[in-house]
């Protein structure tokens, strides 16, 4: 069954540049050239919030893994961290000397990586937004940067037509993939962390193995590809293109599965929800669309109990390396020694930890906001005292 359009959000006043779901799928964030970040509630009775703060176009948005923060990057050279539940509360920091094209959290929610037209990739702590280090080997605008799922690698894509893989610890470029014939708009890690996918103005999507640094799959389209997103199962990829279409690629079969028409004008961004049953897209038509993923009825089960690796024939297709990491990961949870209760206890522990992390996020953010306000107050006080001094001096003169 084809994916179906489920919701349609209108509220932005210019092209939508970025979309992302919160962990629980209750919220969807979008950024736009209209300088606003919007948080849409997926429940029909709840309304959308418009977050105003950026002085210029919002180029990228992303929820933190816990869903308690949203990061946004802008043409105003800043990054903002918002609390999506409190209307309009954010901390801002000057991240780059040019447009911030991409902002992304590490999977533990502790770091963010930003990419900019100043040709650098930078890594920051979420707490206090402390600058950690800069990666600067690209020779043109950097469009996108992402952490690997285990947080050890960073991948970046640029208008210099390269995709670069970095070691986070040594801060060195391990490899440059130079096979794109145009600008590389978007790049991301496969959920297994073993490969990356990149989308370019040369109308292609390319998948590389990051262990052997070799090309696994190549999809040739007929229009600029602006954005892509992996399904959490790792078996599918959705892309957004200038020809206004969204395309769903079956990575196991290595073929195009669906072409979806919804946007009028270029489709600029696309993202799967964390559970994979929904995906959202944004376009130059100022619209945000939410689609129901109907194309794989059993992927939910596949996520829980991934089929054993032995069923995949190595000669069958080029992408076999990509899913080996995943099969391995999923079957691990079925160790005969582990009983049901243990899993339940672990699940509730994980939930509690998730909640604590979320509360910490909010606290960090609140403290940060208070610090900013204090600085403002101090500045105002200083100004008043200086003015008083001047008045006294003028009087004595």
TrEMBL record:
Signal sequence residues: none
Keyword Flavoprotein listed: no
InterPro entries: WD40/YVTN_repeat-like_dom_sf, WD40_PAC1, WD40_repeat_CS, WD40_repeat_dom_sf, WD40_rpt, WDR55/POC1
One BP term from GO: multicellular organismal-level homeostasis
CDD domains (alphabetical): WD40 (cd00200)
Family recorded in the similarity comment: Belongs to the WD repeat POC1 family.
Role summary: May play an important role in centriole assembly and/or stability and ciliogenesis.
Keywords in alphabetical order: Coiled coil, Repeat, WD repeat
The name this protein goes by in its record: POC1 centriolar protein homolog A
GO cellular component terms, semicolon-separated: centriole; ciliary basal body
Biased amino acid composition, Basic and acidic residues: 314-343
Ranges: WD repeats: 9-50, 51-82, 93-134, 135-176, 177-218, 225-259, 260-292
Classification via SUPFAM superfamilies: WD40 repeat-like
UniProt-annotated stretches for the region Disordered: 311-344
């Amino acid at each position: 069954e084809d994916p179906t359009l489920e919701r349609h959000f209108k509220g932005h006043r210019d092209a939508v540049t970025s979309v992302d779901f919160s962990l629980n799928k209750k919220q969807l964030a979008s950024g736009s050239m209209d300088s606003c970040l919007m948080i849409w509630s997926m429940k029909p009775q709840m309304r959308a919030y418009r977050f105003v703060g950026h002085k210029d176009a919002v180029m990228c948005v992303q929820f933190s893994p816990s869903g308690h923060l949203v990061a946004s990057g802008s043409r105003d050279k800043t990054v903002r961290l918002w609390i999506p539940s409190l209307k309009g509360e954010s901390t801002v920091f000057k991240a780059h000397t040019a447009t911030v094209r991409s902002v992304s959290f590490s999977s533990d929610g502790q770091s963010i990586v930003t990419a900019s037209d100043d040709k650098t990739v930078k890594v920051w702590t979420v707490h206090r937004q402390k600058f950690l280090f800069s990666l600067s080997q690209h020779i043109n605008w950097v469009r996108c940067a992402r952490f690997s799922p285990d947080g050890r690698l960073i991948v970046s894509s640029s208008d210099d037509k390269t995709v670069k893989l970095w070691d986070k610890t040594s801060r060195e470029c391990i490899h440059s993939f130079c096979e794109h014939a145009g600008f590389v708009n978007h790049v991301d890690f496969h959920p297994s962390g073993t490969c990356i996918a990149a989308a370019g103005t040369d109308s292609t999507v390319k998948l590389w193995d990051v262990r052997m640094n070799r090309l696994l799959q190549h999809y040739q389209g007929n229009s600029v590809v602006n954005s892509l997103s992996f399904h959490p199962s790792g078996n599918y990829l959705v892309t957004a293109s200038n020809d206004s279409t969204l395309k769903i690629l079956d990575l196991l079969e290595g073929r195009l599965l669906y072409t979806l028409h919804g946007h009028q004008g270029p489709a600029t961004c696309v993202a799967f929800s964390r559970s994979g049953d929904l995906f959202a897209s944004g376009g130059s038509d100022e619209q945000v669309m939410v689609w129901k993923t109907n194309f794989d009825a059993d992927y939910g089960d596949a996520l829980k109990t991934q089929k054993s690796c032995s069923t995949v024939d190595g000669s069958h297709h080029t992408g076999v390396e990509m899913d080996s990491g995943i099969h391995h990961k999923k079957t691990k949870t079925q160790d005969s020694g582990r009983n049901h209760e243990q899993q339940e206890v672990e699940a509730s522990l994980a939930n509690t930890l998730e909640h604590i992390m979320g509360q910490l996020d909010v606290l960090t953010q609140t403290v940060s906001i208070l610090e900013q306000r204090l600085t403002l107050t101090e500045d105002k006080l200083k100004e008043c005292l200086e003015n008083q001094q001047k008045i006294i001096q003028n009087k004595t003169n």
